Amino acid sequence: MPAPLLPCPTDNPDSAVIERAASVLRAGGLVAIPTETVYGLGANALDTAAVASIFTAKGRPSSDPLIVHIDTLAMAPQVVDGDFPTPARILADAYWPGPLTLVLPRHPTVPAAVASGLPLVGVRCPAHPTAQAIISAAGVPIAAPSANRFGRISPTRASHVAAELGDRIDLIVDSGPCSAGVESTVVSFDGDMAVVLRHGAIPLESIASHVAVRSIDTTSDTAIASPGHDERHYSPGIPTTTVIAGFDPSHAPPGNVRYLGYEGEEPELPAGWSFVPLGSRSDLDAIAHDLYDVLRRADVAAPTRIIAELTGEAGIGRAIDDRLSRAGSSRIARSVADL
To answer: Counting beta carbons within 10 angstroms of the beta carbon of residue 326, is it exposed (0 to 12), middle (13 to 18) or buried (19 or more)?
Structure first.
């Protein structure tokens, strides 16, 4: 039976919906919860059986850790073992509530499965009023990866969740489209250095204005403490290829292909190819907001292939390019010969 989909306006969360969602979570159930990034598949982070049901519903491998969501910093001691290191405290003060995940020592009461057996756990305080209200009403930290089948395109609308997981979960709370559209930035710590494990809604440059920061190769094993590290992730069902910024497809073979590029920069396309705008490269925030919607529409159109062009930009462009490159299995074509 499909999960009930309950409207809950962002500007005035419905108390009855909030309490119903909280009740399901306290009972060990699964609830799709809106956040400012994407919709999350929530379960009580301190309930081992509930956590296991997340992995089952998504078809998610146990090697991919979950992020735990808290309503305020006061809930952090239930998740984090010990005090925040200084750079983590600085970033929490600057960006919480918001789309920043901090990777910190895991409290013993948090099941090892949440963190894929690691001693570290990702924790964040979402800014979305509905998410905050549900966590507060439940009274427990909520583990919540994106509410989609593993490796698929992340959901930014309740309808996306219903299509992906509607028959596998207990409840979907609908607060409309997510405002950011890409996942949180994930940061770990090496002494006083912040280390970006996953680019996301808060750009590296913004973090660097508060603390020393570096970025790692997020396809490496050292990124295992962050979700979304697989070479293929955020992917349409249609075979997808990622190409460099400014790619010239004019000499490619004809076919039923959707080419995802940028407004005002439409390239010459072979016969049968269709241009799909991701947005204007001058407004990266808008591209990020619509990214998963555009990928889903291209997927539903059922071409034989999707080709997505990178932004080649810094800032949130890094997060956009990370998602597009992983949609194409982390292989990037530089010329038609590479397609």
So the answer is: buried
Give the CATH superfamily of 240-338: Threonylcarbamoyl-AMP synthase, C-terminal domain (3.40.50.11030)
Which top CATH class is 5-223? alpha beta
8 A C-beta contact, residue 87 and residue 212: yes
Q: Which amino acid is at 227?
A: P
Q: What is the C-alpha separation between 108 and 89, in angstroms, rounded? A: 21
pLDDT value, residue 218: 52
What letter represents residue 326's amino acid? R
Hey, is 332 helix, strand or coil? strand
Burial of residue 238, with CB atoms counted within 10 A of its CB: 0-12 exposed, 13-18 middle, 19 or more buried: middle
Look at the pTM and tell me if it is higher than 0.85: yes
Query: How many Å apart are CA 147 and CA 162, to the nearest integer?
Result: 9
For CATH 3.90.870.10, list the domain ranges present in the chain: 5-223
**What are the residue ranges of CATH 3.40.50.11030 in the chain?**
240-338
Phi/psi of residue 26, each to 5°?
A: -65, -30
- Alpha helix segments (H runs only) across 12-169: 15-26, 48-58, 86-95, 129-138, 158-165
Instruction: Give me the residues of the chain with pLDDT under 50, please.
Output: 221
